[in-house]
Amino acid sequence: MAKPFEDTALFESWRDTKLSNFSTRLDNYLVEIEDPLKLSSTEFEKIRKTCGESSFCLIKIKEQSDYASVINKINSQLGLIDYDKHLYVKTNGLASITVSKRTDQSEFIPYTDRELGWHTDGYYNEEENRVRSFTLFCVNPSLSGGETSWVDHELIYIKLYEESKDIIEALCHPRAMTIPANIVNDKTLRPESTGPIFFNDRTSNALYMRYTQRKKNIQFHDSLEISQAVEALDKLLEDIDDIKFSHRFNRNEGILTNNVLHKRTSFIDNPDQPRLLLRGRYFNRIN
After folding, report:
1. What is the C-alpha separation between 266 and 146, in angstroms, rounded?
2. What are the boundaries of each domain within the chain?
3. CA distances (Å), origin 174, targets 187, 210, 236
4. pLDDT digit string (tens) for 113-151?
5. CATH code for residues 8-282
6. Single pTM value for the model
7. What are residue 15's phi and psi, to 5 degrees?
8. In this structure, which of 49, 79, 88, 110 has its CB flanked by the most CB atoms within 10 Å?
């Protein structure tokens, strides 16, 4: 996998453009969709442009009778059709992110009410199944908590690059992070995945990040440089209020992203109307 921005002048040009498009106002990233079954040219272009420049876009729609089909329609209009067929995805390509009572499913933190640390989606996938974008849409919010925070991983790269090129060099190591195979009853549900944390994705020719702060069952390459680089990354993620966003999604609100780094706080559910978000993971970017 190619290392991104080995040319300093190219990096500086890209960085300056990236920073010029950044805004701290969340409203600047919002598109209110009038008819989700048929995006207007203005809505389509703003979503495409915003995701291209900032790696995410917020959307808001009106009340619907069938949210899954409507969200799928929005996604398909953006070219998001080829979805990640992971364990709990439904036939329409969306997974229901809600507290699960199934023993096997509740082993995975997204399907609980617990806190989720910083991660990118599909960090354990092999190259041919790389998650390049995901969408998340709120059907029912929690009673309290469940706030989502996210940060454009390209801004994280910029901060680390300017702190030390040695950190970037270590995080681009081809064996920086390994996720062991998922084996249940001697059956391999997912093979071992080894690769860099930052790299240039050949398919999209875009800067890609695969990472999780979850350290259980995660193996980092045995080198002092990589250990220090991961420590520097985690330290940075503790102090990024100038570039991160946080929002507790309400009903009819969602986010479309080029697989940005994100996390979730723990929450208290409403027993009468449990928290439900619809998530789609796709193999291409929104741009």
Report:
1. 5
2. 8-282
3. 27, 12, 22
4. 999 999 999 999 988 899 999 999 999 999 999 999 999
5. 3.60.130.10
6. 0.94
7. -60, -45
8. 110
